[in-house]
Amino acid sequence: MDRLDAMRLFVRVVERRSFTAAAADRAIPRSTATEAIRRLEDVLGTRLLDRTTRQVAPTPDGDAYYQRCLKILADVDEAEGVLRGSAPAGLLRVDAHGALTRAFLLPRLPEFLERYPLLRLQIRQGDRLVDLVREGVDCVIRAGAPEESGLIMRRLVDIPEITCAAPAYLERFGTPGGPGDLAGHETVGFVSSRTGSVLPLELCAGGRVMEFDLPSRVTANDAETVHHLARLGYGLIQAPRYRFREDLAQGRLVEVMAGFRPEPLPLVALYPQNRQLSPRVRVFLDWAAEVFRDADL
Known about the structure:
Elements: H1 3-16, H2 19-26, H3 30-44, E1 49-51, E2 56-58, H4 60-84, E3 90-96, H5 98-105, H6 109-115, E4 119-125, H7 132-135, E5 139-143, E6 151-159, E7 161-165, H8 167-173, E8 189-190, E9 201-205, E10 208-212, E11 219-220, H9 223-231, E12 237-240, H10 241-250, E13 254-256, E14 265-272, H11 279-294
Helix pairs in contact: 1-2, 1-3, 1-4, 2-3
């Protein structure tokens, strides 16, 4: 194994905190990986990794070497790409918001794969903020402004949100026209995975954001379940407009308080700040931004 390959392997071991996972990523036996790192440590004359039965972690020297390796490998990859004039290639691992992926990205995925025939794509779907480095993910796409994570954020689009209810619910409780009409109303409570609490109803007017904690007879932590409960008449619901398009067209749900819509929901991409943005990630995010700009959100 030459020095550059050893450096790539070392970077992967640090990021995955595991010889086994790093070896699998590099498609080599674990024994080959451990021997290559041992030889690298011998050449450098210092211990790069602390090894325990649970995980592998860089020593202070190892961390400094890791940072240098990142820059060196990024420069090498960029130089080779320029000289070859090559298109982005290899495996791209993306963790994306499930509903948005199914509604907008997947229908247009053939055009992306045709545009970049040397790319392979692995899509995971979820809403939690994953550990990109340790889990081997290149970038994530999430709805909502994330908490401070040490990641670089790229805003892709703003998603309009609306407030809706079933006709049967509005017959019983009345149709609210604005914040002053909310007394006596209920929501289908959506339980936040971040806080464990029911999200408040949010209304906006004249640049002012107002939150209302309305009672909920039924709560759920799954967006599809909350949506279904709203159709059954259990209360007001707020969500991105695209999720309600069919229900609105067929009269199963009715928008209310249209003059007080919530603030749009930002859709963001996140990737590690200690890496130069790879061509694979860059072209995917450019394409995703194009898809969402063209979408009827």
